[in-house]
Each structure stands twice: as C-alpha cells, then as structure tokens.
Backbone:
C-alpha cells in the first residue's frame, strides 16, 4: 500500500499500466455511448449473448494460431446475422432467437475448448480479459472503434430515439426502424468485440451496463447520460487498475467490479438526496 497519498497513482508510471488505463478509457467511452441505448432499449440480454457468442470464434482462432480479435468479431457478427435470420424466416420472437443462438454458440465454444489440449490460460483470458496486455496497436484499434461508435450514434440519434418510443412513430417519420435496429445491434456488437481484451466475454456486460445505469440516476437526456456514463466508466477503469495493483487481483474483474460498485453508490447517493429533499424542514 502507498505510504503517502501522492504515491497512490505511482503505478501508472509503468508503460503497460498506462496503456491499460488508456485502452480501458477508450473502451469505457465506447461502452458509455452504446450502453446508454442498451439500457434505454432493454437490450441487456443481447449484449450478454453477443459476449458469449464470441467464444467459438475466439477459441477456434486460438487453436489455429490466428488473431483472436478477428475470430471473435466474425463470430459475433455471425450471431447478429443469425438473430435477424431467425426472426425473419423462422418467425421467432427477438428474445427467443437470441436465446437459441446464445446457447448454441456457447456450447460450440465449450466444445472447441474442451477438444483442445492445453487451453487453460487462453480460456481465462477469453473469459476475463487481459487489460494489462493492451498494446499500442490495440490502442489505435480501440480509438477507431470509439470514433465509429460515436459517429454512428450521432447519425442515427433521431432514429434511435423514435425507435425507443414506438416503432410505428419511427416508420411514420420515415426513420426506417429496421435499419435503425440493425445499426443498434451493430453498435452493441462493436462494443462487445472492442471490450473483449479489456474485460473478457464474462465481464463485458458489466462495463456496458453499469456506467449507463449509474448515469441514469442523475439525468434523463441521452447525450448527457452518455457523457456522465463515460465519466463513471473511466473512473471505474482507474479504480479497478489501482485495486488490481495493490490487492493483487485480476485487472479485468476489478474494473468490472468497480463499475458495478459505482452504479450501486450512485443509486444510494441519489436515493439519500431524494429522501432529504422530501423531508420537511421544521
């Protein structure tokens, strides 16, 4: 533990922690943008399913010694397309389509992992991420992913708002709700794939949802909620990395836990402030 408060942030003098913090911050910004719409639209199940839907692609890429990020991206994209195909052709509901593909992809990933000989270390990285292994190239990719997410969110803002209110309203206004829904699913896929290395498939939903939930206690405007969620997310990254360093815990899990803790604290503070505002003064 640090002997002086000024020594608290001393670990960030290390290069790999600096890259981890910057990469985590970029992931937090992207997740704040996408996670706000995920919470508003009630798409948490989709985020969870896509996070696990990456597993077979990542596992297969690891076995074949290919880039795991590409394998995970292709797997997540295939799952997104499969959800749409099941809805259109099999006439299944949205959550039923997600549930079927979720179990199928997860089972396929476990089969690939179990069939491989020495996969324990790689499986741990897949499930819980390795934020401290983020490289300079990864930072460029994360910055590009965050920029793409921001641009898509700006271009489809009106469509997303109308889609959240009523699909019929979006159709009447000529905002093409089907295209907006596809764009939103694409954003969730982008956030899940980009967040994979930082927190892994098991914990990505925590970083996707918790900051947006925390911000939702203080504002109802979408842009403000995104900005505040980004602040909560970046704070969770910094606190998580510090907790990991001093407590010798897993970095990705520590970041996700801090994000959820901040959401709980945000709710508690908001509840106490609201109760104090309602208490009559004598």
Residues:
């Amino acid at each position: 533990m640090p002997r002086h408060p000024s020594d608290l942030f001393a670990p960030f003098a290390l290069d790999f922690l600096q890259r981890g913090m910057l990469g985590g911050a970029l992931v937090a910004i992207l997740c704040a943008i996408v996670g706000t719409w995920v919470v508003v639209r009630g798409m948490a199940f989709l985020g969870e399913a896509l996070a696990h839907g990456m597993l077979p692609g990542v596992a297969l890429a690891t076995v074949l010694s290919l880039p795991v990020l590409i394998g995970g991206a292709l797997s997540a994209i295939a799952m997104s397309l499969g959800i749409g195909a099941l809805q259109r052709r099999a006439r299944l509901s949205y959550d039923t389509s997600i549930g079927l593909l979720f179990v199928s992809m997860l089972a396929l990933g476990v089969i690939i992992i179990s069939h491989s000989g020495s996969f324990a270390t790689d499986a741990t990285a897949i499930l819980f991420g390795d934020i401290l292994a983020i490289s300079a190239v990864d930072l460029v990719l994360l910055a590009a992913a965050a920029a793409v997410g921001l641009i898509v969110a700006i271009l489809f803002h009106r469509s997303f708002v109308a889609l959240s209110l009523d699909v019929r309203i979006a159709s009447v206004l000529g905002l093409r709700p089907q295209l907006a829904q596809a764009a939103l699913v694409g954003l969730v896929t982008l956030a899940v794939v980009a967040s994979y290395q930082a927190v892994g498939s098991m914990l990505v939903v925590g970083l996707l949802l918790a900051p947006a939930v925390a911000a939702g206690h203080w504002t109802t405007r979408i842009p403000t909620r995104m900005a505040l969620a980004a602040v909560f997310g970046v704070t969770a990254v910094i606190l998580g990395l510090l907790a990991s360093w001093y407590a010798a815990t897993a970095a990705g899990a520590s970041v996700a836990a801090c994000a959820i803790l901040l959401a709980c604290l945000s709710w508690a503070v908001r509840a106490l402030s609201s109760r104090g505002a309602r208490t009559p003064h004598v």
About this structure: The CA atoms of residues 128 and 146 lie 21 Å apart. The chain has a mean pLDDT of 83.
